[in-house]
Amino acid sequence: MCPQLVGESTATATGRAPQRTWTGTCLTVACQIGVAMAVLDGWQYVWHRCMHLNRFLYRHVHSWHHRLVVPYAFGALYNHPIEGLLLDTMGGALGFLASGMSPRVSIFFFTLCTVKAVDDHCGMWLPGNMFHRCFWNNTAYHDVHHQLRTSGYNFSQPFFVTWDRVFGTHMPYVIEEDRAHGVLRARPMALHTSAGK
Ligand SMILES: [Zn+2]
Ligand SMILES: [Zn+2]
């Protein structure tokens, strides 16, 4: 009796499993990371805005993060533990699950999220920073949120500005040179134009 294979096999006539092309793999990973970024952004926008609108949540939870009037890198994840769990841990988990990415890809995604959050709070506008070239939501954009924490702008984080544009909370910025102190300053566009009148 000849042995019979049962079940499905992905092997080819040569006996080797078909190889994914490098391009196909890169496209799949890019799509998964894109989906995870969109899900994380939507989740964080909703909760971030809620924490500003609800006085209890702002006073007891989100105000911890807004002790940083002038953000700095180590303050990126200076949050109340509940905020860390709700926005970062649950948002990241939802992005991971919705995208269907593998644990290996998730290493790059979560690293990207962490580095992006640190960059958004670093207070540095260095030439050649790829985050500043790739994202409108960047160091200056989030800096404006910390400046205008009571007026309610620029809630979107960490990647896109989409939800701010959709819900009318988008505040563009200008980068001004403060020659007296030798620094650059991010200024909300509305304040900049009214000051210039
Ligand atoms: Zn905030
Ligand atoms: Zn912040």
TrEMBL record:
Pfam families: FA_hydroxylase. One of its GO terms (cellular component) is endoplasmic reticulum membrane. It is a multi-pass membrane protein. Its EC number is 4.1.99.5. It comes from the Eukaryota. GO terms for molecular function: aldehyde oxygenase (deformylating) activity; iron ion binding; oxidoreductase activity. The keyword Ribonucleoprotein does not apply. InterPro entries: Fatty_acid_hydroxylase, Sterol_Desaturase_Related. It catalyses: a long-chain fatty aldehyde + 2 NADPH + O2 + H(+) = a long-chain alkane + formate + 2 NADP(+) + H2O. It is found in: Endoplasmic reticulum membrane. Residues 35-169 form the Fatty acid hydroxylase domain. The keyword Hydrolase does not apply. Belongs to the sterol desaturase family. Homodimer. This is aldehyde oxygenase (deformylating).
